[in-house]
Amino acid sequence: MNRNIIFYYILLMLLVMGAFAAMALNSYGVVLMAYTMLGFAFAFLIDLLFVLPKQQSMLKKDKRMLGAELLLLALLCLIYFAQGLDVRIPSASMLVFILVILLILLNVYHFYQSWTTERNAPLKLKFAFAFYFTAIVLLYISNYLPASISIVSSWTALILIVAFLVIGWWRGSVLIEGEEVTAMHRVVRYKNKSGIQLVILGLVTAYYLLSNFNILPPLYVGSMPNAHQQVVREWRLDNSKTNPQDFELAYKTFLRGK
Amino acid sequence: MKPISEPNICPYTGLRSFTEEESLYFKGRDEQIDQVARLLEQNKFLMLTGASGEGKSSLIYAGLIPNARAGFFKAKYTNWVVTDFRPERSPVKNMASAVAETFGTQPATVETELRRGFSSLIDLYVNSSFYTDEQDETWIALNESDRKNKIRKSANLLIIVDQFEEFFTNPENYLNETPSQDSQIVVNLALETARIALQRNLPVYVVCTMRSDYIGQCSAFRGLPEYIGFSQFFVPRLKRKEIKQVIEEPAVLSGNRITRRLVERLVYDLAEGIDQLPILQHALRQVWLAADEGREEMDLIHYAMVGGMSAEDLPDTDQSRYTSWFTKLPDNQKKFYVEPGLNKVIEIHASRLYEGAWMYYNENHPGQSITQKDAKRIIALTFACLTKIDDSRAVRNRMTLAEITNIINQPTITTSVVGGVLDLFRESSNSFIRPYKTEDSHTHQVAPHSVLDITHESLIRNWALLNKWASQEFEFYTTFLDFKKQLERWKESGKSSGFLLPLGPLTFFENWYNECKPNVYWIDRYSELKADPVESLKQSEILLADTNEFIKSSASKVWLTRAFMKYGARKIATGVAISAMVLLTLFYWYDAQLKTNQQVEKQVIAKAHSLLQSLEVSDINKATFLLVEERLKNGSLMAYLSSVSNPKQKLELSIAAYRLILYYDKHATLPLKSELIDSIVDQLSTYKRDNPSDATLLLEQQNQFVLLLAYDEYYNPSTRIASEIIPGVLAWQQEVILFFLNNHSPYKQIVPTELNLAIQCWLTFADPRKEDIQKVISLLTPFDEASKKTFDLYYVKGNYEPNGRISSDYNGGYHTLAGEYERLVKEVNDPNERNFLLAMHYKRVAILYSKYLFDRGLPLDQTQMDAWLDKACEHFNQVSEQHLSGNVAVNYRYYSDGTRTIQSSRKHVFLYPDYRDGWFAHKYNTDVFMQYILRKNLFAQYYTTAPTLALVHDWISSAKEVYPRKVIMEATGIFNNHYELSDTLLKEILTAVDQSPAKSSFDKNLPVLLLTNFYFSSGDTTQAMQYFHQLDQTTLLASSNRYEYLNQMYFLNQVMTLGGYLATHRYHREALALTKFMEPNHQVFAYVKAADQLYQEYHPQAFTYLDSAYAIANRIDFTNLPVANAPRNDSRRMLVYMLGKVGGEKPAQIARNYIRELVEFAKGLSIQAMIQGTATDGSYYKAMSIVPDTFTQDQELDSYNGILALVAHEKFNRPEWAGMDDVILWDYQYFLLIAI
Fold first, then answer.
1. CA quadruple B505, B507, B510, B514: dihedral sign
2. pTM assigned to the model
3. ipTM field
């Protein structure tokens, strides 16, 4: 699975680059991000179809779980790709919601598996795993929480990531059977895609929080009104405000045929 | 098997040789012991050779010596003293120490003696108490008893040089096929001692033990081969029977038990080859330990437990026990039992220690734990240090603990840690490294200077890992030798780049460097300067520094080539791609930073500053920017003005800024205003009034300044302005007036107007002395021949203002005032006219005084008001109807800054609820008259007819009107009136109208519209909708058309505002119906207004209204509109504004398309609208980038002012600057629907 790691690095870099291009008011920034999501979808599908079947050392159950995870992630990326290119998919938000729920469940399963595998590990290591997976779950659900709670959960997730990095990398080496290991070593060896999920969700959330504090500018989306992000922000704070989808639909209806 | 309760002695030594004390268990060599003894008896010298591990040392220590002491050796004395030593790296020192210990003297003294001559050892012996010379006189003199005592104390001397091969294996002793001096001394001493002993028949014997494979090298020592040929014994291999003895008899003798089947199995397993005896001894010791230290009878199961045989070969009865034991073994140790065998016992034992050393250390050093990795590294490096390859043979190499620790060279790993880890290998049960750990507590810790040594070389050969480490260490060493050659060449060439390592060798040596990690101590280990350790270490340091430099320099030379070779094109391409993306990301990040609103604000300010230098830009635009900047950065305006070097520009900018402050807020109390006034006064004080080049500037600027001061003082009473500043400036102005009246040469077209204004201001505000006035008149009068030229120059009949539009006969006012004065002083004899004029007078006094009080913020004296208005009505009531019906000329407002004269009946002039005659009658003043009428219930009395009600209607439309402030202020300086007409009064008027007989003639739409908007704005939607339903929508067009010019524009704006309110309150049907009466161009305005209001809430319906506006605009043929030449009235401008506000790629494109269609002036306005719209939505960068290169500098600065005003509004939305927001953003709040 690690053979594709360079590809993932490039995609992550493209994603960040696209985001900054969009922040610099370039309409192709979001398009670049959309195609990056397509790249991610391809990467996950390649892993699913060509790499996973060759994993001899994995248990069948683990293979099935990983296969499901790859499929869900690929679907999620394809939906975001379409949305980035302004292609409307019926019930996209519901579909995304279902995919996210399934991915959360998979991550909970990964956590359970790590916890039981490392049952004899020092508490420090187990805490690091707990921080790691809780962060992923929090990052996922933050999108579906009311804004005031979402900000708290997003910050919590980022703090957990930092705590994981501190324990898991910097100050967390523990002796297990004479080997000096850290939680980071263990996580890097995971065959699942929790790492990529954590990185992407972490980046998105960090951007969301930083842009809320005006540290980073909003993403410029050429196909959307300038106020779109403000509408999204206000709606997240107060559901009685204009629904961004209605706003977007009205805007596109206005532009149709012009 | 019956367990034995008491622990037994272990009769097996493991890898170490037998000692003299253990001779009881030394079995199987009886015959060889006798042979060796006979040879030594006869020759006094013996070279005992044999293969490694054949028991040479044991044969001497546990065979020969005990036998000799037991009397089985024919010698002179019965006592024996043994001097034994190993050459190691200091043979003379070691020999001296051993001899000194034997003879009870100091080692240093002995060493000196030994170096003196080769017979010194014999001399020491014969002169010692151990030797008795029976020829000596003292002996002869002794009695028998003393002789017996002397003989009893005498002893034979046995000198043992163990491990003789160390003369060849240590470079200190033997280098380049040449023995060292110390080696030669020791060998010669041994040989000479033996020769003299034989010659003089002294009881001195010399025995050397040496591995047989070094026999060839003995020829390096002169005389040694002869001695070997003379007396040598080769230790033979044990026979099967003797091996059984070696196994069985020690067990029996020590009280242990061993099964016959184990004995048979061991004999069977003992293969041919070297090291069989150490392997056997080690295996037996391990079996004894496995058998609970001999408490159990040693059997096959114990043999299997130490890895000597496979569990499958065990009897069935032992299988389960073995399995149970094996299951409990740690996983990392089970793997060693894969291929068991007698030859594997050492391997398994050593490897298990290797794996478990970290745990052993951590258990014995709680709180100082180390990792397994560190422990393994310590063990590996230690054993690598304790072995070396000599002539393709792995041999032992003794080193001190400190030397080993230095080579490990890790800050956290001290001698204590290294010693602690190695303790496991020194345990008596393991005995792999000397010195062993015994019951003596002194042996429990190894001192840093203690010499460590591998017990037996068989360990090197039988422990694969150690063998590997030794081989690797040897490889490191040989590579180092190669490297040194290259390094020397490079240094000899003066470190020339031509002698640097090429890619292949560099990679090879780098790999060596990275794996070996050589340090000073490692290099020093192989130093040839063993005689001087300090110098050796110093040279090693230099060598290491050179090594690092050489590799680094070589690597720098070939970095590019090796990068390609190392990573390959694919990885490099990926790296380049990622690097490029990182760079691009950084660029975008930087770009995004530049495009943030904060950065754009700075950029816009910088651009605006550059435009301040331009002569093409109007002062008012410059002043606007300076004030906006002042709002953003307190103190910037005065700082800028002080930096302006051109005094004219500075004065004009200062006055323009002062004017703008008053435009924005006539009650402005900003400290900046006072600073500006003082600054202007200071600037004016520096001018000379009689300088022709400055006269026009002073005339014009002082006029403006005085008018502004007077205006300011009116609204903001100030003694200083009134009594100091204005008179002061007018005193200067008087000089300028006189200058112009005396000098005609600096004439400009503007001078007559400004001169007349200056005289008026001077007369009005300066309270001039009579003689001064007379002086001016004398210079101006047309009746004097000399002054007539001046009069004709400045007071021309048929003249116009410089703009050519306004008539300026005799420059207007001065003469008009004179005419009025003449008329007023005339006596009025007609009582009707007199009463009418008095009625108008009292009404005028009441209105103007109430306005004066309002403007100055003073309380209204209602009693005084009523008294004046009572008198006014009293006089009005006395005027006859006929006289009232007569017309008089009154001023009527004409557009914004003009008036026209209309004929109106006296009755209507009086009943108009405001002041409507005189010079400045076009302005709305107060509601004080209407308040009085309603309070005194006079409405039904006076307003009974349609024309009189129309006066009220007209007054309302003027009273609530919002002036087109920006345009008008900039053009004329007319200021807004904040005197509001209240909703309460409007409702009272509506009630009063309803009671009027002519009520049907009164068009209620305007007041109802005003009230509806009022309630919407105050949030009372219910009330608002109640009034909305009172609106007669069928007559809206007629209502609109009843007004002209500004009043109509005001009415339409009210309708549009209502449309916006209805839309935002979701009354879309009503909103759409409301605007149906409008012409299409106005409908576009209305829809944009509604869209704008909805968009402020981000309501999706905003796009529906925008779409409607777009659709209507597309149907309009703008070229045929009557207002086509009025760009401000072109609704496309507002569409562009709104599209800019919405943003996005496509709306921007639509807006650009509109702009392209517009005529030039409208194009400019629309671009500014788009800039403003885009900036309103917060995208200042996008707004800034819209500013086209084709803009004039004035337009450009105006655009920047618009952006910066929004920035300032966002940042400092405070009441003192509210006026600025109103003025600058006015264009997009109030629509000019009629051509200007």
1. negative
2. 0.63
3. 0.82
